[in-house]
Structures are given as C-alpha cells and as structure tokens.
Design brief:
With about 230 residues, the chain is mostly helical.
C-alpha cells in the first residue's frame, strides 16, 4: 500500500467523523442523551482492533508457513496497534459508562472480557520481549498469537451476549435495563451514514500507524534480517 490515496481517504473520513459526529442531531435513546455521540468513536475502535488483530493473525500464520521474518514483524506491529486500540476502547467506554451508568467501571461482563482480551495481547508482547533469539521468538510468538486470537473473539463477541450485560446486545442488565440496542430502529439514517465511514476511517488509521511502525522495525532489525538471508 505505497500509494497515498488511502491515507488521504483516512484523513477525510476522520475529519468527517469528528465534525459531523459532534454537530449532527442525534436521536433521544433512553439514558444515553448526548453521550450517544461516543458511538462514532468507541465502537469503531473495537471494529478497528478486530481488523488489526485479524491482520496480525494472518501474518503469524504466514510466518509459520514461510519462516519469513518479515511476516513476524508485520504480525507484531499490527498486534501492538491493536492493543492501543483496545486501551482507547476501554478508555472511551469508561467515559461513556460514567455518563450513562453512573460509574466508569461497573464490572459489566463485556468490560471484563475486553480488559482480559487486552491483557492476553499484552502478554504476547511480554512473551516476545523475554526471548532474544529471532527465530525462536518469531515461532513461539506466532503460535501464541493464533491461540490468543481464538480466545479473543469469543471473549468480546460471544460470551458477553450469553450473560446479563448493560451493553447493547446482551441480556437485560440489572442497572436500569442497560442501553437500547444500537442497531435497527435505534439508529437513524444520519447516524448510520456517519458510523460506517467512522469505522473505515479508524481502520485505515490503524493500518497507517502500523505501516509506519513496521518500517521502523524493519530498519531496526535490518542487520539481523540480512544475516538470516545470508545464512539461509
């Protein structure tokens, strides 16, 4: 992705998201009030994290198939950006929860699951940092990354929907019945037209950040990569 059109698109989409997201008239939904504007930021960050961690998974699988160290670097950097998105998602969620549920952390199943998912991927970074051997680190990290991903998906997308939750999509919670489901009739056309460009914008931003970090990592490991090429 050496062309710049997608970077320009990213800037345009995020500028549109921030501008329209704060200025557009939003529907009145239960106890959400004006805090529903966080929907254009909080939710797309989790969409972005899923895409970034999926790319990380793909490159980990590619490394195990090819033993190309570049794939390990790609997998690592996409995972790191995905972690940043997860932390931002937890932060924006805590802000939203303060206004709608009365406290930033209410031990909601989806909050707990999201925090565990972030910790699982932080452990991935700790694992990588504990090994100096390039090949061993890449191989062990790739295997861990695959298992982490298939724990991550049920944690944030399946398990919270099977228990009582204040989040939309879960069973009705105890504190005021949770939020109305943010879909179907709950979102008007205007919000939908802002939400999906926001998702694409945040995804492109994550890929952009990751691509810059990949270039830096490739430069930092240039000598090791060259040595591996010569030895093979």
């Amino acid at each position: 992705m050496k062309s710049n059109w997608w970077k320009i698109l990213c800037i345009v989409l995020l500028f549109f998201t921030f501008t329209a997201g704060f200025l557009v008239k939003v529907p009145f939904l239960g106890n959400l009030h004006e805090s529903i504007r966080n929907f254009f930021f909080h939710v797309p960050m989790w969409f972005g994290q899923i895409v970034l961690l999926s790319l990380s998974l793909g490159y980990s699988i590619a490394f195990l198939r090819t033993q190309n160290i570049k794939h390990d670097i790609y997998a690592s950097e996409f995972a790191k950006t995905g972690i940043v998105y997860g932390v931002l998602g937890l932060g924006t969620g805590a802000i939203w929860a303060t206004y709608t549920w009365g406290e930033p952390w209410s031990n909601d199943p989806k909050q707990i699951a999201a925090a565990i998912a972030v910790l699982i991927y932080l452990a991935y970074l700790v694992l990588r940092g504990s090994m100096n051997d390039l090949d061993k680190r890449a191989s062990v990290s790739a295997v861990y990354n695959i298992f982490a991903y298939f724990i991550y998906i049920p944690l944030i997308m399946i398990l919270p929907r099977l228990v009582q939750s204040l989040h939309p999509g879960g069973m009705e919670g105890a504190k005021g019945g949770g939020n109305p489901a943010l879909g179907g009739d709950s979102l008007d056309t205007t919000m939908t037209l802002i939400f999906w460009p926001a998702v694409l914008g945040w995804v492109l931003l994550g890929i952009w950040i990751s691509s810059l970090k990949i270039r830096l990592s490739m430069l930092a490991n240039k000598n090791l990569i060259n040595e591996k090429r010569e030895s093979s």
